[in-house]
Design the sequence.
């Protein structure tokens, strides 16, 4: 074995087994000391050790505004830092939100700077809060959630009406007619309803359906209107267009299928269209955000 | 008589090695965790935090049984991006009745600490049955069996077990009266163990969470639980600086 200059630790096991003592390089050792020093400085600046019933707060501070709007300074902690960051960011956005709150929507969209703010902030808010139901582009989902990108509105498509929808939430209700009307009557009504949007239907049945629709037995006209074009007060949709939320008419390939789809809705009624409320107490969105989102939804394509 | 206690003593004595290794690795816990049980500034003093009702508690058990925590955290950290997305950061006080808490750190899906009230019951039911039917790009699995009946027969036992960990479910009249004082009568009734099963069924019937009122399903319980998450504290009544100064 070649001559070895490295010392051993001095322990000997099993008669001959020894361990070399290779000292760590100096740069490493000094590196260690520096990190220890760093830790001590860190303990002085930031909150660190538990002491008694509390902990050391450190000497670093954060200055933020309190609920009364006065400047206040507290020892550094993540909550203080967050509060300050939120306030700084809000201060940067405030001029935009103030302008949007003060202006009519039509004017907001004409101002290129405000409009691009609405589009980018609106997209973020929409993705987080609305897309799970109305889908990323607002296109909705037949059988579940209405399309917000078309020009068919149950509760109205002006910015003000959309805003009212957001603040208070909505819940569409249509009674079930399965036990009120005969099967044949419901079939007749379905023919009439499909005829309204230009489907080639059985004329005789549609005529009977027309009568029922406007009679007090069916009473459809009461919510959907004499002209079946919908009434906002009830959130009852326009039945004369080709846009469907609940009755999956577009998917059915023949008249039979389409009639069945409408029949199903009329028989079972509707009570599951729940749009949560976003305003009011403990609200997820503040009034500024709601107005911005309303303009954004209005701009998705079908605003009125 | 005493041999000098040296490095060699430790290396050549398995007993010492085990004891001192255990000590070394528990230093972190002793310094970072143990003091929190003694500190005054661990649990924020906020109003509204209450134990779960029997139905919500069963929903929570199902949440754990299904392993929802493997993809979802319930801990909004105090960062701007998280606050903007999920809402107010989580407080320690908000999970004081959680045994075990569901903070977690794995986020395949979004944080759920404040999902309560964000969606409708109808959405949750549809989403749990078939997530892709409402969020087409979702990788969350389907849970079709949740529409099956909920076994509510042991809910009182479960509450009794939680009571031993310090959750103030009541067994006696004195405890009930104490709860009335702390949480109000309506809630105190919910926390009374002898009435647990009746209360569970009543809440499921009244809430009709899964849209089917004929029976109490596991879906009723899970949605009731999801809808209460993060809603107990009314943050419009909490001054942000009070939470800052608390730490």
Sequence:
């Amino acid at each position: 074995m070649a001559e070895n200059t490295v010392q051993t630790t001095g322990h000997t096991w099993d008669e001959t087994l020894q361990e070399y003592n290779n000292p760590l390089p100096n740069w490493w050792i000094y590196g260690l000391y520096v990190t220890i020093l760093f830790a001590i400085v860190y303990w002085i600046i930031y909150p660190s050790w538990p002491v008694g019933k509390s902990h050391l707060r450190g000497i670093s501070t954060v200055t933020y505004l309190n609920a009364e709007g006065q400047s206040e300074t507290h020892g550094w902690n993540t909550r203080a830092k967050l509060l300050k960051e939120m306030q700084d960011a809000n201060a940067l956005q405030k001029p935009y939100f103030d302008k949007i709150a003060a202006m009519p929507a039509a004017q907001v969209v004409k101002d290129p700077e405000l409009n691009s703010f609405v589009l980018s902030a609106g997209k973020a808010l929409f993705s987080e809060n609305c897309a799970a139901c109305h889908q990323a582009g607002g296109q909705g989902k037949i059988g579940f959630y209405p399309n917000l990108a078309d020009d068919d509105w149950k509760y109205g498509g002006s910015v003000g009406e959309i805003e009212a929808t957001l603040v208070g939430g909505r819940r569409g209700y249509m009674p079930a007619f399965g036990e009120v009307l005969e099967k044949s009557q419901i079939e007749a009504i379905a023919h009439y309803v499909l005829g309204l949007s230009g489907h080639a239907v059985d004329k005789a049945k549609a005529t009977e359906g027309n009568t029922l629709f406007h009679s007090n037995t069916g009473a459809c006209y009461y919510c959907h209107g004499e002209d079946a074009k919908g009434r906002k007060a009830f959130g009852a949709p326009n039945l004369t267009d080709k846009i469907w939320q609940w009755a999956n008419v577009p998917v059915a390939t023949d008249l039979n299928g389409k009639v069945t789809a409408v029949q199903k809705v009329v028989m079972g009624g509707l009570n599951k269209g729940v749009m949560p409320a976003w305003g009011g107490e403990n609200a997820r969105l503040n009034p500024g955000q709601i107005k911005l989102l309303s303009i954004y939804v209005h701009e998705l394509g079908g605003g009125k | 008589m005493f041999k000098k206690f040296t490095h060699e003593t430790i290396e050549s004595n398995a007993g010492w090695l085990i004891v001192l290794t255990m000590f070394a690795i528990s230093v972190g816990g002793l310094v970072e965790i143990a003091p929190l049980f003694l500190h005054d500034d661990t649990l924020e003093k906020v109003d509204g935090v209450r134990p779960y009702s029997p139905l919500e508690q069963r929903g929570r058990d199902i949440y754990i049984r299904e392993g929802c925590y493997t993809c979802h955290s319930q801990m909004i950290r105090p960062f701007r991006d998280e606050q903007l997305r999920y809402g107010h950061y989580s407080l320690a006080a908000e999970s004081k009745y959680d045994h075990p808490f569901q903070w977690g750190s794995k986020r395949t899906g979004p944080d759920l600490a404040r999902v309560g009230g964000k969606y409708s019951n109808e959405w949750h039911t549809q989403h749990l049955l078939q997530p892709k039917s409402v969020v087409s790009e979702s990788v969350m699995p389907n849970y079709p069996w949740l529409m099956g009946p909920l076994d509510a027969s042991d809910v009182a036992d479960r509450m009794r077990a939680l009571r031993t960990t310090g959750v103030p479910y009541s067994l006696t009249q004195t405890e009930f009266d104490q709860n009335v004082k702390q949480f109000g009568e309506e809630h105190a009734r919910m926390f009374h163990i002898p009435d647990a099963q009746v209360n569970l069924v009543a809440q499921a019937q009244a809430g009709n969470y899964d849209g089917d009122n004929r029976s109490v399903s596991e879906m009723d319980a899970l949605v009731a639980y999801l809808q209460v998450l993060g809603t107990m504290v009314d943050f419009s009544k909490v001054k942000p600086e009070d939470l800052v100064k608390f730490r």
Observations:
- The beta strands of chain A are 8-13, 17-20, 50-51, 54-55, 61-65, 71-75, 170-174, 270-275.
- The two ends of chain A are 93 Å apart (CA to CA).
- The mean pLDDT of chain A is 91.
- Chain A touches chain B through 37 residues (CB under 8 Å).
